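Project standup — Tuesday

K.O.: blocked on the structure for the chain from last sprint. Re-posting the sequence here as requested.
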Amino acid sequence: MTLFNPSLRVTDLTVFRGKFTVYSEKFHTGLNIISGENSSGKSSIMDFLFFGLGGDLAEQQWRETSLLCDSVILGVECSGHKVSLLREVEPKKMRPMEIFFGDHVAALKAPRSAWQKFPYSRGGGGSDKESFSQVLFRLLGLPEVRIDEQNVKITMHQLLRLLYSDQLTSVERIFRQQQPDDAITRSTVADILLGAYSDRFYSATLRLKEVEDELKDVQNDIRSARKRNLTDGQPLTEEWLNAQIKRITSEIDEVSKNINEVEGRMFSEQFDDRLTLNDQKATQDKVIGLQVEIGRLSEDLDAIEMEISEARDFIQSMEKKVADLKNAGAVINEFEYLNFDMCPACMGLVEAHQVEGGCSLCKESFNSEDVIDRSAKMLNEAIRQRDRSISIQKDRTQQRNDLLGKIAQKKLLWEDASRHYSLSLRSPTSELRAKLRELNRKSGYKHRELEELSAKRSLLEELKILERSREALQKERDKLTAQIDSERKRNLDRKAHARDLIENLTLDFLHKDLDRQSTFKHANSVSFDFEGDRLSVNGESFFSASSMVYLRNSFLAAFHFAAARDPGFGHPRLLLMDTVEDKGMEVERSKHFQNLLAEKATATNSEHQIIIATSMISEKLNNPRYVVGQHYTHENRSLMIQTE
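H.V.: unblocked you, prediction finished:
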């Protein structure tokens, strides 16, 4: 069968009470039926499936018998990746999840130390660890969507609200009921499942917000820096700064010339005054000190440049690794079909004989499914390493920019100190000469002015960096805006196509209903409003309770089968349904709907899974091909819990 991604399929469900197994069954592709009398525990199993996949149950939604259990483990396949999910049963919301990167059999044998624990939401439990929804979305290949300015991400629970039809939700609603609820979340979830919220659109939208925030900060920094550094109303520019430096340097040269003239007259008139070398020594120390600082800063700059270069190569390698690992089949083929004619270690010829299911080089056997399991874990770790490296790289880039500014400032100070030192060598200061003291005082004042300008040189370098950042961000913003506009158009076209396909399949279910609702038989349009959480047929929204159940089930099934036909959907091709006989549904109508589900499931050529619970199973479907486990009764309940 063809596998469309995203694809989510339950392979096993095991429920524990302490060390005892109270439920353990395998599930298959296509239609799965949990059959049993009313109040025999069918809904408990459906709730465990919902909860085990990441759904959230409020305290009052747990059944009394379910709360006697301690934990639930699901074996699942996420777009071909075999993983196992463990959640502990407690009547509390937002419970964490433990994930084992391997199949259900290996998970049951593995120690708890081999499992990785993830909170319900990022930062849950007081850490910054990613949520289990982020991990599962990554394995499924779904975008991690953030809702507007609320910084709230769509979770597995939100997706499951459109994949699990439970008995507690009002029949008028599309989504599984919860409080609080909002139209934006419902609309976003629908867009994801319709395939109208692509990775490119989400990534570009998310990055555009970051770019606009960064651009706003850079522009504020530029305005603030220029406003703080006005001199007599003159804005700080490179031209103005160079002119000021040239002017002061010229004035220093003029003062130096005057000092030379005075000293010349002093020596020509043969004055025998005591000269000091204090100024020479102080200036020399300053030159040496600045050289040391420049050297140290340059070493730091070289080190950070090397780190940036190495990190850039590492990030590129991780990007390639992530791209490679996203195709688990390619990984398997690489390991399974890579043949060596020559040993890469000793360069000797490799014997031509081949071990079936083994490596062509070492002849050891390996299980290709284990490779898929490991690739899922490697993919998760590779993406985390890449994202962490990108974050650290931003900090390194900022450190490099700071060092460039400091080096520019120190170099200007070093050049000035060198000129001052050269002057002191030619014209030593005499403490007895008033004129020389005045000239040296004036020279010192000018040098201090030059030092102040050197600080502005550092600021100017910072402004240059900010302006280059602004230009780069503006270009990126324009590129992202164009990309978002293109993706938005694609998403609108995609949404229209997906809605048409769902409507036609829903109409097919309604037309094939038993003759119970005339509007269904003559239906020519089905409207579904995700934001308003409402369905209507031919503009009508009010029917008998059983007909509303049939309409809701038909719509959810149509959504599922549309995704099973069209690879463009973001729907994970999984449907849980505990309402095929709800609200007074008569036996024949329920069985007829079950038969329709079975016919469509059999006719579908892609992998998908439907799990339903019923107390009135169709005779055509009452066989191991469809039924999971036994037919449960009050005496033989689904959960084998011994009570005293």
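K.O.: great, moving the ticket to review. The mean pLDDT is 84. The longest strand covers residues 8-17.
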